[in-house]
Prior knowledge:
The chain is α+β, with helices and mostly antiparallel strands. 41% of the residues lie in helices and 22% in strands.
Amino acid sequence: xxxxxxxxxxxxxxxxxxxxxxxxxxxxxxxxxxxxxxxxxxxxxxxxxxxxxxxxxxxxxxxxxxxxxxxxxxxxxxxxxxxxxxxxxxxxxxxxxxxxxxxxxxxxxxxxxxxxxxxxxxxxxxxxxxxxxxxxxxxxxxxxxxxxxxxxxxxxxxxxxxxxxxxxxxxxxxxxxxxxxxxxxxxxxxxxxxxxxxxxxxxxxxxxxxxxxxxxxxxxxxxxxxxxxxxxxx
Length: 234
């Protein structure tokens, strides 16, 4: 899974088909606590995983031993498609997670017997490819404000918002920084700045409310902070 300047292009709440439910019904459900691993880099890829609930992060270990977060996934996502024999990413839970593991040996038969499941697998692959291409085009083009605005809007769109627009922001600031290619101090400073400007409100450490969605959208589409300020005034 790839990120394009903070844009999570392949993580969508999907409407589960009858066929996919049929496939999942035949495999065991697993419940994993927060901050535990579903699999590590280099583990044999013997299953793919359908996320039923919760959030996970995908990361790679760099040459110097540091981790680089390459994606977040929530309910409806299918994990393990980016690898062949071994997992190329590690997968760690951000919140308590429920998944269903589908043995790789069964995927071919599942796709043959259930066209709706095959279609969802292809959609996931297409989103991952599109995200990788977008990342190459924008990885160095967006400012810190633009990356953060895009990230917040995307997470908001993926979460179930309350009536007043509040949504869960379950990842830590350090995870957000790795994800966006920014320093932890930069993310913390920009989050504080967004609140000071009245664009968002953190109702708690892990809950956010978007107050000026159009301002964030303008930033995410390439606008500058000065222009966003004018939009706010209007």
